[in-house]
Design goal:
CATH superfamily: Ribonuclease P, Pop5 subunit
Radius of gyration: 16 Å
CATH topology: Alpha-Beta Plaits
Helix content: 40-55%
Number of domains: 1
Distance between the termini: 19 Å
Structural class: alpha+beta
Strand content: 15-25%
Oligomer: single chain
Number of strands: 5
Length: 152
């Protein structure tokens, strides 16, 4: 018996400081799995239609989002991962805040995805750790624990 094949995409979200905020909003956005998933679903609907959205929703899920380092893990089926990936590159904003998605890695194995995500998290945290408060550093350690316990 063959198991269901997934692809895990490790993405980096760049908040675009060069563009003006849409709608005159002043505060930066807080990334959550919900608003990232909604932005990707909207992009799938716009670019591939309702049938494209329906076919990709079977296994689509935003499994992890770190609001500090702006890394996220998106799961999709092996058959639909290219469509989801294409839609993510076409996302222009989350809420009213302009963003750009950057693909760091695509894997078919949860273990490999966890290892790559931990490596990227540690590198990004070293870059921005000097400007973080103690509360944000504690939050980041909680995010690392969530990756270590990450399962499909």
């Amino acid at each position: 018996m063959v198991g269901f094949k997934n692809r895990f995409m490790l993405m980096e979200v760049f908040l675009d400081p060069d563009k003006d905020l849409l709608g005159g909003e002043k505060s930066p956005i807080i990334l959550t799995p919900f608003n990232v998933a909604e932005a990707i679903k909207d992009s799938i609907r716009i670019n591939f239609g309702e049938c494209g959205l329906g076919s990709s929703l079977g296994s689509f899920d935003v499994k992890y989002v770190n609001e500090i380092t702006k890394l996220c893990i998106v799961r999709s089926s092996r058959e639909d991962h290219r469509q989801v990936w294409s839609a993510m590159t076409l996302v222009k904003s989350i809420g009213n805040y302009p963003v750009i998605f950057n693909l760091l890695d695509i894997t078919g194995c949860v273990r490999t995805c966890k290892e790559t995500a931990l490596k990227c998290e540690k590198e990004k945290f070293e870059q921005c750790s000097k400007s973080l408060s103690e509360d944000e550093k504690r939050k980041h350690s909680n995010y690392l624990e969530r990756i270590k316990n990450f399962k499909t």
